[in-house]
Write a structure and sequence with these properties.
The complex is a heterodimer of chains A (420) and B (162).
Chain A (H helix, E strand, L loop, with lengths): L4 H9 L10 E5 L2 E5 L3 H10 L11 E4 L9 H16 L4 E3 L7 H7 L8 E4 L13 E4 L2 H10 L1 E5 L3 E7 L8 H12 L8 E5 L8 H9 L8 E4 L3 H10 L18 E6 L6 E3 L7 E3 H4 L6 E5 H4 L2 H11 L9 E5 L3 H9 L2 H8 L2 E2 L20 E4 L15 E4 L2 H10 L9
Parallel strand pairs in A: 2-3, 2-5, 3-4, 5-6, 8-9, 8-11, 9-10, 14-15, 14-17, 15-16, 17-18
Antiparallel strand pairs in A: 1-7, 12-13
Helix pairs in contact in A: 2-5, 6-7, 11-13, 11-14
Chain B lengths: L1 E8 L6 H4 L10 H4 L11 H4 L5 E3 L12 H8 L4 E4 L4 H9 L4 E3 L1 H6 L5 E5 L4 E4 L4 E4 L5 H9 L2 H8 L1
Helix pairs in contact in B: 7-8
The chains are: A alpha/beta (420), B alpha/beta (162).
């Protein structure tokens, strides 16, 4: 029986010729990721059982990004615990303030994911690296601890939903609109325990940054991972970023078995938003435009890459943020910050009346740097709009693309960028 | 393993942000953190929950973040077991990895109401709702997962392997 891309990667890492959906396997890990929320719990678990070695100091990545720059003493203690651990084990890929970034923007930028690799991370948005044709999935702190100790993880081989893309995005429509449309279509548990596999002739019209956004939000449909077929766009990116190691690109078998096949014509998609309080509450922005907003967030692990920030800046250039709206820009990494400075993008945002933050997860999870008060509404390019996600339990979040967020920043009400 | 106690019942898509809001995740001591368990959807839960009580949800329980703090604070609050129609996959493995029994049983999850007196017998593979008088069969865990649960969690299992 044919295998999906994900099944091939899992089989290869388990030393098996083939696997079938539902099979439980133990697989070798190429990288284990953790952050300042999850790694301290993993380190505590290792300490509890007296584990004092890691399997490979080059195959662990630690980034304090959620509550950094440290928002309070507790956060500082957590970041310190990771720093001490990283120093003790001489962890190669430990990134400190000044060279860090939001983990899911930073990891690919550092060349730490390649096609065919198997990556686990104690952060649910670890599924982002499927954009380069890797199998990557979010796990908890105990799995992270076990992964750091043994270099192995247990997996149940998933079925897959196949998405065949055709056509080309219209102006102001991007990967964010595609993934919000899909989650609206299949629901927040529509891909539970499944892979979401993306391919088709429309793939050539989907940029790497859009692919990262789509794969990032696979978890919001309940998926184990999101994965893109490897094409010339992937190869250009990977050859530019991945140095000094071999990797293998896997293609799905022609007779691979899928749970469901969904065809999507990209040219039919509109700018799409997800209304409170679930990512599946997707609507074309044209249907819900006009809602007054208090805050706009542009950036994050979902939409904090160059293409995202360029698109937002192009819409905002020469205009002013609406009176009474707070606009926060969250670039993904230090390198992205530097490119934004060089391209004048930060100047555009600041002249408009937005503020530019250092890379941090901060407001996305209601942590710091832009928490909402009761009754407030944010339009945000982040990935979750659950109850209380960005602050007060009576605040609300609408998820949107950088283009919709930028247009909304200018008008102060939820806005279709085509109508600006 | 056998549990019998009172039920706290919730609906679909109980997400990790309502189980334990991210604003508290600078706390890594689970006992301290558990004071905030479920507070955004049920302020009474942590004030009234007793050791051994049972939590029941419907579809996609534990969706959202990979934070292990979510099953950990539920366990720390005294809950002995969670029953749901389906669980989000990261929550599912996190719960088993920390030794918190969870059961997928749509029939039971839909039948059971808040405050019901429910008994779970993992050995016999049955859920009994003493309030409604109905019983439900449970699918056993695969052997590999059973071994993790029996060892009391993944790290203890790995230690025993070595």
């Amino acid at each position: 029986m044919g295998m999906t891309m994900t099944q091939k990667i899992l089989a290869a890492h388990a030393g098996l010729d083939s696997v079938v959906a539902g099979q439980l396997i133990e697989a070798n890990l190429d990288l284990v990721l953790g952050n300042d929320v999850t790694a301290p719990v993993a380190i505590n678990e290792m300490d509890k059982i007296g584990a004092d070695k890691v399997f490979n100091k080059d195959k662990i990545m630690l980034v304090s990004d959620h509550f950094t720059p440290n928002k309070d003493i507790k956060s500082a203690q957590n970041a310190k615990q990771i720093r001490v651990f990283a120093n003790k084990h001489d962890i190669t890929n430990y990134f400190e303030l000044g060279e860090m970034g939001i983990e899911h923007c930073l990891l690919p930028e550092k060349g730490l994911c390649a096609p065919g690799e198997l990556i686990i991370g104690a952060d649910s948005h670890t599924c982002t690296y499927g954009a380069v044709g890797a199998f990557s999935t979010g796990v908890g702190s105990t799995d992270m601890a076990a992964g750091m100790m043994t270099g192995k993880g247990w997996f149940k081989v998933p079925e897959a939903i196949r998405f065949n893309l055709t056509g080309k995005f219209n102006k102001y429509v991007s990967g964010k609109d595609l993934i919000l449309y899909i989650i609206g279509l299949i629901g927040v548990d529509g891909a539970l325990y499944c892979s979401m596999e993306f391919g088709g002739e429309g793939l050539k019209n989907v940029s790497m940054d859009s692919r990262f956004t789509v794969a990032n939000m696979a978890i919001e449909a309940g998926a184990k991972n999101g994965i893109f077929e490897v094409d010339d766009i992937t190869l250009a990116y990977v050859n530019d970023h991945v140095k000094n190691r071999e990797w293998t690109a896997y293609t799905p078998d022609a007779d691979a078995v899928y749970k469901r096949v969904i065809d999507i014509d990209l040219s039919k998609l509109e700018s799409t938003v997800a209304m409170p309080h679930l990512p599946e509450n997707a609507k074309p922005v044209s249907e819900v435009a006009g809602i007054k907003v208090d805050q706009v967030v542009i950036g994050s692990c979902t939409n904090g890459r160059m293409e995202d920030l360029r698109e937002a800046a192009d819409i905002m250039r020469g205009k002013k943020v609406a009176k009474g709206v707070r606009v926060i820009v969250l670039p993904g990494t230090q390198k992205i910050v530097m490119e934004c400075i060089q391209e004048g993008i930060f100047q555009t945002f600041i002249e408009c009346g937005a503020v530019v933050s250092t890379p941090t997860c901060g407001p996305c999870l209601g942590g710091h740097m832009g928490v909402l008060a009761d009754g407030e509404l944010a339009v945000s390019t982040t990935n979750r709009n659950f109850v209380g996600r960005m602050g007060h339990v009576d605040s609300k979040v609408i998820l949107a693309s950088p283009a919709v967020a930028a247009a909304t920043a200018i008008t102060g009400v939820l806005t279709d960028p085509n109508k600006l | 393993m056998n549990f019998r106690s009172k039920v706290y019942k919730y609906g679909d898509n109980v997400d990790t942000d309502v189980i334990i809001p991210a604003r508290y995740l600078n706390i890594t001591n689970m006992k301290e953190l558990s004071a905030h368990c479920m507070e955004d959807i049920d302020k009474e839960f942590i004030k009234t929950v007793k050791p051994g009580d049972i939590m029941v949800g419907e579809e996609n329980f534990g969706c959202g973040s990979s934070r292990e703090h979510a099953p950990a604070v539920i366990k720390e609050s005294g809950v002995s077991c969670i029953i749901a129609c389906t669980f989000a996959r990261i929550f599912y493995r996190n719960a088993l990895n920390i030794g918190l029994p969870i059961i997928e049983c749509p029939e039971a999850a839909k039948n059971i109401k808040s405050g019901d007196d429910v008994e779970i017998d993992l050995t016999k593979g049955v859920i009994i709702n003493h309030t409604s008088g109905q019983t439900f069969d449970i699918q056993p865990f695969p052997e590999f997962i059973q071994n993790i649960v029996n060892a009391g969690g993944l790290l203890s299992y790995i230690q025993k392997q070595d």
